[in-house]
């Protein structure tokens, strides 16, 4: 197994990525997967784990940092721009088509959490993608507007829009607008704000369990108004007849978003539930990840031209 640091261009922004190439057990170009990370995450976290495991199953995989995040270029830092995030996936596909290790006719997308929503939108608009799978699908705009469980008081998002508007005014005056911090100081405070889901997010991003120095754990304020009118699920009907697989934790409070995307699909579609798992469990707990990878392997082996993949 070889992992190489690479870069590619996405709308003028240099995107940093890790390319995982299996060994030489099978001759000729291989099927390939673009793997996207959760919101504020980086390629060294959960997306890198899935990329490595899928490479061990015989796929060339590309795990990348979103524009303005991680090691990738772009300003302001911490920007979550839905249109750019979708473009990053398409640019990653373009990069893979230039690699001699990759069969350009057998490329799929794998999006985790926020990248789940973005990968669905990218697939809808890019016919080079043969199949798409997601793990614990989240659609960031919906999550900010409605909350992780879909029951948030609308006043919460209105207050965020007020703060984003003030930040733009502050920046226009040449002053530092600051950033939106994603996590409070303690797990207990995270629980008050977001219940068990909030605690699990804190434990992953803010403790040795999963934290990484380049996972910023903040958003540029203009991310909020960019998400205000975004709906990346609008492209889901365009995916058919290409297949969609969504893997969801049985206890995930975010499952309603995957269900909505499933209902919009017009082609082959499947919701696959991982018994006992929460949303964040599927980030790093191997007893759940291994089950997800088994399902992903079957799905992509079948649907990326059906030619089969040789594990290494």
Name the beta content range: 15-25%
Number of helices: 10
pLDDT average, as an integer? 95
Unreliable parts: none
Radius of gyration: 18 Å
Identify the strand order in the major beta sheet. 1-2-4-3-5-6-9-10
* CATH architectural arrangement: 3-Layer(aba) Sandwich
Order of helices and strands: EEEHEHEHEHHEHEHEHEHH
Task: Please tally the β strands and state the result.
Answer: 10
Annotated CATH topology: Rossmann fold
User: What structural category do the secondary elements indicate?
Assistant: alpha/beta
Helix percent reads 25-40%
- By CATH, the superfamily comes out as Alpha/Beta hydrolase fold, catalytic domain
In the residues, how many domains can be counted?
1
Structural summary, described in words:
- By secondary structure, the chain is an alpha/beta fold.
- The chain has a single domain (2-148, 229-303), classed as 3-Layer(aba) Sandwich (Rossmann fold).
- Helices cover 39% and strands 21% of the residues.
- It is built from ten helices and ten strands.
- The protein has helices at 46-56, 82-97, 114-125, 140-146, 154-172, 187-205, 222-228, 255-264, 281-284, 286-303, and strands at residues 2-10, 13-21, 30-36, 60-64, 102-112, 129-135, 179-181, 218-220, 244-249, 269-274.
- It has an eight-stranded mixed β-sheet with strand order 1-2-4-3-5-6-9-10, sandwiched between helices. A two-stranded antiparallel ribbon has the order 7-8.
- β3, α1 (46-56) and β4 (60-64) form a beta-alpha-beta unit.
- α2 (82-97) packs across α3 (114-125) and α5 packs across α7 (222-228).
- The model has no long low-confidence stretch (mean pLDDT 95).
């Amino acid at each position: 197994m070889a992992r190489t640091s690479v870069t590619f261009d996405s709308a003028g922004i240099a995107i940093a990525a890790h390319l995982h190439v299996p060994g030489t057990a099978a001759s000729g170009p291989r099927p390939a997967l673009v793997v996207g990370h959760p919101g504020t995450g980086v390629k060294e976290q959960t997306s890198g784990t899935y990329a490595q495991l899928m490479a061990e199953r015989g796929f060339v995989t590309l795990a990348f940092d979103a524009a303005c995040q991680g090691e990738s270029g772009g300003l302001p830092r911490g920007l979550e721009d839905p249109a750019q995030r979708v473009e990053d996936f398409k640019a990653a596909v373009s990069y893979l088509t230039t690699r001699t290790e990759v069969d350009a006719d057998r490329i799929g997308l794998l999006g985790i959490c926020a990248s789940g929503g973005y990968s669905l939108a990218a697939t809808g608009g890019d016919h080079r993608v043969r199949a798409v799978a997601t793990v614990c699908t989240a659609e960031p705009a919906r999550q900010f507007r409605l909350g992780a469980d879909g029951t948030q008081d609308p006043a919460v998002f209105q207050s965020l829009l007020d703060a984003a508007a003030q930040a733009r005014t502050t920046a226009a005056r040449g002053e530092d607008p600051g950033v939106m911090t994603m996590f409070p100081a303690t797990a207990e405070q995270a629980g008050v704000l977001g219940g068990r889901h909030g605690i699990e997010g804190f434990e992953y991003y803010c403790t040795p369990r999963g934290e990484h120095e380049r996972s910023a754990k903040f958003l540029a304020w203009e991310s909020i108004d960019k998400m205000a009118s975004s709906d990346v699920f609008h492209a889901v009907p365009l995916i058919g007849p290409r297949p969609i697989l969504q893997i969801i934790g049985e206890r995930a409070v975010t499952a309603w978003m995957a269900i909505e995307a499933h209902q919009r699909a017009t082609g082959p579609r499947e919701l696959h539930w991982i018994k006992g798992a929460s949303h964040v469990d599927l980030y790093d707990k191997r007893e759940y990840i291994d089950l997800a990878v088994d399902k992903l392997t079957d799905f992509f082996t079948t649907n990326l031209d059906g030619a089969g993949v040789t594990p290494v």
